[in-house]
Amino acid sequence: MNTNQDCGVSTPLPHREGQGGGSPYFNPELETMPRTELEALQLERLQKTVRHCMNAEFYREKFAELGITPDDIQSLDDVRKLPFTTKDDLREHYPFGLACVPLRDCTRLHSSSGTTGNPTVVLHTQRDLDEWANAVARCLWMVGSRPEDVFQNSAGYGMFTAGLGFQYGAEKVGMLTVPAAAGNTLRQIKFIRDFGTNVLHAIPSYASRIYEVMKEQGVDPRRDTQLRILCIGAEPHSEEQRQRIEQNLGVKAYNSYGISEMMGPGVAFECQQQNGLHIWEDYFIVEIIDPVTLEPVPDGQLGELVLTTINREAMPLLRYRTRDLTRILPGECACGRHHRRLARLQGRSDDMIILKGVNIFPIQIEKILLKFKELSTDYLITLETKEEGDVMTIEVELSQLFTDDYAQLKNLEREITRQLKDEILITPRLRLVNKGTLAVSDEKKAVRVKDLRKLF
Amino acid sequence: MIHQLSIFLENTSGTLITVLQQLKKANVQLISMTIADTAEYGILRIICAEPLRACDVLKEAGVAVALSDVFALELDNRPGAGADVVEAFSAAGISLSYIYTFHMRGKGIMIFRTDNAELAAQVITDNKFLTIEEEELEKWV
User: What is the mean pLDDT of residues B20-41?
Assistant: First the structure.
């Protein structure tokens, strides 16, 4: 590897025994750095990254269109002067259009599935891979993994970044790492028992599956295994699901957020407080924007996550629109890390509804409906054009009848409608329907929106 | 007091028959049922034999059902019997949420529910109204 433009500041990598031995931090200095220092480091890395991006014709053209040069980046807020990058940009410049180093300097390529058109390609130099492994190691260390642990990775290997991503991260921590890969649950359970696995990575639905098969086999995870930590990600799951998995397997389960365009796992991870995912701000500039106006939203407000890589050589991305919805959790975390926290990921910005000029995310509606134990989790939002304008009808299933009184049913309807209006600022029409009428057969929960509005 | 099943019914075709078919399949005999007409949904109320089992059957089938206790009074077979009963409750300041009646073996049976069950029970005792219990009702079926 011989790149003339080193975009990052090299971080001292810890020894195999783990940095600081008993330290709760893998990169103590970088993780606990005061905000002012962290932001100074971010600016320095951002400026280097932006200059480095001029190696790609794609960014040179974008900068020319906007009439900006790398010298325009004088503060962190100046990140907003930069052009956005989208998944479509990656597809249109498939495969190597966004590379900022010659291909001979790259040592790995990951590619996402291309369900529509070209797949996306992400290139890595050896330094990128080392930094990626460091980020994942930092996450695994944060949740309590140590070199004496045995780590089993039940994620798919190959192009799927959670396989190799966790592999190298766990090795960097110094754990004995078992690349079990996905599937063959009986074998997974045998490995867990025979090798004394105490840290497991699996997608949440597969973690549940492992538990089910353990039960069938008469294996009690608390008695018969040494499982202690579970890393779950890649699939949306609720807090209740997490707690159920923790209860069943007798583990602490931590949420992982990764996105292959950024590298894969290691972007953001929960600490032992289990309250939000720390996003590594020495790797990324974080923005949360309104997906329509593209303007930043205040901390605490839901919006689309936009990331700028500031620690990458082969293929840095400026203001990449992840389409993932989340919000910044305001305030300090008790764990001592100053990297800000993202709330649990809440769906995709592509699902957003605009009604009467108001932006509404189905997740906002779902959140309210989940509060009512009388309702099932299925719902359907219909948007229609009526004489009085566009209206939203929300059908919800009544899962249990809590009363014999018609008036109380009406009260429930009024209460749900009132809370919905507080959340989405529009009064929807609510329809209680029979249980089972809205259920869909497919496992993955489809977006429950039917838009029948007439367009002018 | 006797058990009554209350079932949430959306006002679309097929919802009523689905519920009744479940009860038929489970060999549950209906004694009385009533439903008020409403725009979007209503509550179907059923008096039947083996109400506890019937409730389980419906729950199992995914029906939103509630089991509640209602009063069942036996009315004399004469003009004014209904008026006398309702008058007594009215005099005691009790309002009735709903009421329906049916005939069984030559007797009028009146089902009703009130917000103040305790006071209603007192009025029934004071006026020596005849109540029907579940075992009796089931014997008649």
Answer: 90
* One domain, residues A164 and A88: yes
What is the pTM assigned to this prediction?
Answer: 0.71
Q: Tell me if chain A has a CB within 8 Å of the CB of B9.
A: yes
Structure tokens at A153: 């990775």
Interface contact flag, A434 B66, Cβ < 8 Å: no
pLDDT at A239: 83
How many whole angstroms separate alpha carbon A101 and alpha carbon A96? 10
- The answer, yes or no, to whether residue B12 has pLDDT greater than 90, is no
Q: Which amino acid is at A230?
A: L
For position A114, what pLDDT does the model report?
A: 56
Any domain includes A412: yes
Cβ contact A437–B10 (<8 Å): yes
Domain that holds residue A389: 352-451
Tell me which residue of A313, A315, A293, A318 sits closest to A304, measured CA to CA.
Answer: A293
Same domain, yes or no: B94 and B78: yes
Is residue A47 in some structural domain? yes
Provide the number of structural domains found in chain A: 2
ipTM of the complex, rounded to two decimals: 0.80
Sequence length of chain A is: 456
| CB contact at 8 A, A101 and A54 | no
pLDDT at A413: 93
> Residue B24 to residues A453, B19, B28, B49: CA-CA distances in angstroms?
43, 9, 6, 12
- A438/B contact by beta carbon, under 8 A: no
Q: Which parts of A28-153 fold into alpha helices (H)?
A: 28-32, 35-53, 57-66, 87-92, 126-142
Which residue range(s) make up the domain with B48? 2-68
In this prediction, residue A341 carries a pLDDT of 97
Same domain, B96 and B128: yes
Q: How many residues are recorded in chain B?
A: 141
CB contact under 8 A, B66 and A435: no
Say if residue B60 is in the same domain as residue B80. no
Place of tokens 């910044």: A328
Whether residue A404 and residue B15 make contact (CB cut-off 8 A), yes or no, is no
pLDDT for A440: 58
Tokens of A276: 């939000």
Is the domain of A290 the same as that of A157? Answer: yes
CA angle A150, A154, A156 (to 5 degrees): 135
Task: Mark which of A299, A333, A349 sits at the end of a domain.
Answer: A349
Query: At residue A274, does pLDDT exceed 50?
Result: yes
Provide the b/e sequence for A57-96 (b: ≥16 CB within 10 Å): ebbeebbeeeebebeebeeeeebeebbbbbeebbbebebe
Mean pLDDT of chain A: 89
Tell whether B62 and B98 lie within a shared domain: no
A403 shares contact with chain B (CB less than 8 Å): yes
- Could you say which of A299, A332, A349 is where a domain stops? A349
Long-range contacts made by residues B23-30, C-beta under 8 angstroms, separation at least 24?
Answer: B23/B48, B23/B54, B23/B57, B23/B58, B26/B53, B26/B54, B26/B57, B28/B53, B28/B54, B28/B57, B29/B141
